[in-house]
């Protein structure tokens, strides 16, 4: 009960923030009713997916300060669990979702234990290595369709809530929007919880945290598992939304980095950061890609612009857009 | 009687030929692994210098290599000369590229937290890769002519050594010796080592550490540029070639120890052998008559061994084999 009240308690934010957040929430709720193109709808769904990925990454990477670049392996585990269970045993999405999350979390405990003996750069590269190993395994494992991936067959009638198969994207939109709000409220609880404070303490100074009696190794593993659960849940959704998964698009390094990048660009370690990051990067990437991809001879220009923005942000404002806003505010206040 | 004798002779001959096949396969795998290993070592050398001097992981390292490869290719194709003449050009281009990256980006990244450094160099990687994609196109390209390309000599029955690979190995070794000499026997090399050991103290001694950092990036870029120009003789180049080499270089550096030049050379050899585990395993299977993981199943995982080795080394012995920096 106490935890629930804490999850819905946003009173420590300034009132302007809450007004903006409320407006955005109302906009998200009524978006499918407004006139929109199907491209805009797909972009919005991707934005919601990436903000939930980013929220997950934010627990370990933002609050905990451990740069994890291997999140895609858990996207893959979630997506493949849902797809395999649906194809082979006809299990509904809402059953395979918790199974996928449990499998991903179990795997995260197995590799998290040795992984968190490392810190900083070493940790980041080691997460990449584990992710690539898993991808290589899936690419040659015939049970999950090897490199060709899996295709989910379409069931009879179309608005099928059990198997998450819809003809209109608006249904998918509301499902992922539900995930989004659950994630947001969970994180609002998380940042004020015991483990949230422990993680921030570890980020500031790990030795001091340990001297205060915090089991830093275990705290990091727990936060890593939380992040994994978020990512695996959206991975399951991804499988149902796309009907078609392959190792290359669910487990690649690009996806891992994109997840971390969204959170960092928006502002790692803040509640709104990952959402802002996804809101900026996803539409930019999609629309730039659509704009330049159509023109011959300009292949890759969208990613060049995108990479330039990453470099500029990393060099001049490492705390991301949220850091920029905070700085502006402090400048005005004093 | 005669028939039985004949059968025994046949089976012995068969056994002998299988043993010979094993010998040939293993020797071939080991030789090619060692030759590739020297190039891997040279690729990793730049990374280990940069990491040793300023504790920054360069994700764009494989892209530096790709640029070196394109330099070698373009000198070979554009100037119609042998790709080996591309070596000095690649070295110069790599050196300049390192300097530009340091002064344009890395200097600002050093002020920020680790996250910013990781993403900054990752952005650099995306930038260079897509620049190459835009300019050169996505098709893999190879060098077709040259005094070395396509020639080989035979070292015993069935063991063929391609001259390109041998020359690459020898030149890599030469580059290693040169770098070692530069790092240990010259004034600028000693200043570099001092900066790596303790930047603050080096600054007090009057060593311009900022310029030393830039020099480390230049040196790293030059060595990896040379490696690229050597590699393009037998490895097709396309804009996405970098990531694999970045990961191999990370593994090599982790194995050899962050910041160690001889460590990089030796670790490169080990990694080269590791990539050739699969053919050796197949040969062993053929001799013992096993069918476990046979028929090239292991070939799909040849780079997984590298990643796994990296993971295990990092967890079990983070210093690497010869590292002094942790």
Brief descriptors of the model:
heterodimer; A: 334 residues; mainly alpha; ABC transporter involved in vitamin B12 uptake, BtuC; 15 helices; B: 326 residues; two-stranded antiparallel sheet; 12 helices; globular
Query: Describe the biggest sheet of chain A?
Result: 2 strands, antiparallel
The side-by-side strand order for the widest beta sheet of chain A comes to 1-2
Structural class of chain B: mainly alpha
Largest sheet of chain B: 2 strands, antiparallel
Query: How many domains would you count in the coordinates of chain A?
Result: 1
CATH class of chain A: Mainly Alpha
The tally of beta strands of chain B, per DSSP, is 2
Q: What share of the residues of chain B lie within helices?
A: over 70%
- Give the integer mean of the pLDDT values of chain B: 79
Quote the average pLDDT of chain A.
83
C-alpha geometry of chain B: globular
Structural topology:
The complex is a heterodimer of chains A (334) and B (326).
Chain A: H1 2-7, H2 15-30, H3 38-63, H4 72-89, H5 93-115, H6 120-139, E1 150-151, H7 169-192, H8 194-204, H9 206-211, H10 216-242, E2 244-245, H11 247-250, H12 253-266, H13 273-293, H14 301-316, H15 320-333
Helix pairs in contact in A: 3-7, 3-10, 3-12, 3-13, 4-5, 4-10, 5-10, 7-10, 8-10, 12-13, 13-14
Chain B: H1 2-54, H2 61-78, H3 86-109, H4 114-136, E1 152-154, E2 160-162, H5 163-185, H6 187-197, H7 199-204, H8 209-231, H9 242-256, H10 261-275, H11 277-288, H12 302-316
Antiparallel strand pairs in B: 1-2
Helix pairs in contact in B: 1-5, 1-8, 1-9, 1-10, 1-11, 2-3, 2-4, 2-8, 2-9, 3-4, 3-8, 5-6, 5-8, 6-8, 9-10, 9-12
Describe the structure.
The complex is a heterodimer of chains A (334) and B (326). With 334 residues, chain A is mainly alpha-helical. Chain A has one domain (2-333): ABC transporter involved in vitamin B12 uptake, BtuC (Orthogonal Bundle). Helix content of chain A is 74%, strand content 1%. Chain A has helices at 2-7, 15-30, 38-63, 72-89, 93-115, 120-139, 169-192, 194-204, 206-211, 216-242, 247-250, 253-266, 273-293, 301-316, 320-333; strands at 150-151, 244-245. The longest helix of chain A is centred in the last third of the chain and has 27 residues, at 216-242. Chain B is mainly alpha-helical and 326 residues long. Chain B has a domain at 35-243. In chain B, strand 1 (152-154) and strand 2 (160-162) form a beta hairpin. The radius of gyration of chain B is 22 Å and the shape is globular. In chain B, 47% of the residues are buried. The model of chain B has no long low-confidence stretch (mean pLDDT 79). At the A-B interface, helix 6, helix 12 and helix 14 of A face helix 3, helix 4, helix 9 and helix 12 of B.
């Amino acid at each position: 009960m106490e935890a629930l009240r804490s999850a819905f308690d946003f009173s420590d934010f300034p009132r302007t923030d809450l007004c903006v957040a409320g407006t955005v929430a109302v906009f998200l709720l009524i978006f499918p009713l407004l006139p929109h193109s199907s491209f805009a709808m797909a972009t919005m769904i991707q934005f919601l997916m990436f903000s939930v990925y980013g929220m997950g990454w934010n627990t370990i990477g933002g609050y905990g300060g451990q740069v994890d670049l291997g999140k895609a392996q858990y996207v893959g585990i979630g997506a493949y669990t849902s797809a395999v269970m649906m194809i082979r045993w006809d299990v509904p999405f809402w059953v395979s979702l918790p199974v996928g999350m449990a499998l991903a979390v179990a795997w995260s405990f197995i590799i998290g234990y040795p992984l968190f003996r490392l810190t900083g750069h070493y940790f980041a590269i080691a997460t990449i290595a584990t992710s690539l190993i898993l991808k290589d395994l899936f690419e040659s494992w015939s049970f999950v369709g090897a490199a060709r991936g899996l295709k989910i067959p379409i069931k009879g009638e179309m608005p099928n809530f059990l198997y998450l198969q819809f003809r209109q994207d608006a249904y998918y939109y509301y499902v992922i929007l539900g995930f989004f709000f659950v994630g947001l409220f969970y994180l609002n609880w998380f940042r004020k919880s015991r483990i949230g404070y422990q993680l921030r303490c570890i980020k500031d100074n790990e030795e001091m945290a340990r001297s205060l009696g915090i089991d830093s190794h275990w705290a990091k593993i727990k936060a890593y598992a939380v992040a994994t659960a978020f990512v695996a849940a959206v991975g399951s959704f991804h499988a149902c939304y796309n009907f078609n998964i392959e190792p290359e698009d669910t487990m690649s390094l690009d996806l891992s980095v994109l997840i971390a990048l969204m959170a960092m660009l928006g502002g790692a370690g803040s509640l709104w950061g990952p959402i802002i990051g996804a809101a900026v990067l996803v539409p930019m990437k999609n629309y730039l890609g659509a704009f330049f991809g159509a023109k011959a001879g300009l292949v890759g220009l969208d990613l060049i612009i995108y990479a330039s923005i990453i470099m500029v942000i990393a060099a001049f404002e490492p705390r991301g857009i949220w850091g920029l806003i905070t700085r502006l505010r402090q400048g005005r206040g004093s | 009687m005669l028939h039985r004798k004949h059968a025994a002779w046949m089976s012995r001959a068969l056994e002998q030929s299988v043993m010979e096949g094993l010998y040939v396969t293993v020797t071939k795998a080991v030789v090619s692994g060692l030759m590739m290993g020297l190039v891997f070592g040279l690729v990793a050398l730049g990374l280990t210098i940069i990491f040793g001097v300023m504790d920054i992981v360069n994700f764009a390292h494989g892209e530096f290599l790709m640029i070196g490869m394109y330099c070698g290719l373009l000198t070979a194709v554009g100037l119609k000369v042998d790709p080996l003449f591309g070596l000095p050009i690649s070295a110069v281009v790599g050196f300049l590229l390192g300097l530009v990256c340091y002064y344009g980006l890395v200097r600002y990244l050093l002020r920020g937290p680790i996250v910013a450094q990781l993403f900054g160099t990752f952005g650099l990687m995306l930038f260079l890769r897509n620049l190459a994609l835009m300019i050169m196109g996505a098709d893999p390209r190879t060098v077709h002519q040259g005094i070395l390309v396509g020639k080989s000599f035979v070292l015993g029955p069935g063991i063929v050594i391609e001259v390109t690979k041998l020359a690459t190995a020898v030149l890599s070794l030469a580059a290693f010796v040169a770098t070692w000499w530069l790092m240990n026997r010259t004034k600028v090399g000693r200043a570099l080592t001092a900066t790596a050991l303790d930047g603050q103290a080096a600054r007090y001694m009057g060593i311009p550490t900022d310029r030393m950092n830039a020099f480390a990036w230049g040196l790293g870029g030059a060595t990896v540029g040379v490696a690229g120009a050597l590699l393009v003789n037998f490895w097709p180049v396309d804009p996405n070639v970098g990531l694999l080499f970045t990961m191999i270089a990370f593994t090599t550096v982790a194995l050899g120890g962050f910041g160690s030049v001889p460590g990089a050379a030796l670790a490169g050899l080990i990694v080269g052998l590791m990539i050739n585990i699969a053919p050796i395993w197949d040969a062993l299977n053929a001799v013992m008559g096993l069918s476990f993981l046979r028929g090239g199943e292991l070939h799909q995982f040849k780079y997984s061994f590298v990643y796994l080795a990296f993971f295990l080394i990092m967890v079990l012995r983070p210093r690497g084999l010869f590292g002094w920096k942790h």
